[in-house]
Amino acid sequence: MEIILISIVAFLAAILTFFSGFGLGTILTPVFMLFFSVELAIALTGLVHFFNNVFKIFLVGKNAEKSVLIKFGIPAVIFAFIGAWVLIHIPDAKPLFVYHLFGKTFEVFPVKFIISILLIIFASMDLIPYFQNLNFAKNKLPIGGALSGFFGGLSGNQGALRSAFLIKVGLSKETFIGTAVVVSTFVDFTRLGVYATRFNKSGLMDNLTLVIFATLSAIAGAYIGNKLLKKVTLKFLQITVATMLIIISLALGGGLI
Predict the structure, then answer these.
(1) Could you give the CA distance from residue 185 to residue 24 in angstroms, rounded to a whole number?
(2) What is this structure's pTM?
(3) What 3-state class would DSSP assign to 104?
(4) Distance between CA 222 and CA 40 in Å, rounded?
(5) Which helix H or strand E contains 136, and what residues bound it?
(6) CA Rg, the chain, in Å?
(7) Is the Cβ–Cβ distance between 66 and 219 less than 8 Å?
């Protein structure tokens, strides 16, 4: 059941990623969390995200802006390492808080709560007009790279912050997408290297079939998304994705999932 559900979500989320500039990792991580621990869910999502990005590099990587890759990408990689290190060292043995509702007991653990808050913040960036009107000078790119890289390493969700900066520095649509894909791939590679120190313990090898199916589904979605890129209206899809993320985040932060 988890293979079918996760593969379908990976396929649909990969299509949305081309439209919104983010989506695959942000949507897929909570779905993985329905079946696995937080750390393993983030690691598995990272693998799917990485291989999907490698495929997208062949599609749009040639459009990346080299100067932006240096100013934004290098800080992103450095802070992705830091964020990933923090993730695997956050204690999650005891609940952050416990509450009772409708005769049931719900426990909220630190990592899930932190990720819930991050997902809500990321999702809100597509709903709050203030963020939509932000403009960043290119000298702010290292800050954006550091922030997106750190939260990418910590939660696996870097896309919203990355898009918030890159889309506001005067890049063309094609250059924005190509640059974002290349940066995202390097961040994924970095954080997966850190996660690898715990892969054997967390049971990654037992879930390779799931990773393969989810990756192939994401690649198929990326291919279709690239074909549809110039034919769709983005606003409705972005708001829909953001709303879904907030709902998922509230459930995650409330200990419901």
Answers:
(1) 13
(2) 0.71
(3) strand
(4) 24
(5) none
(6) 17
(7) no
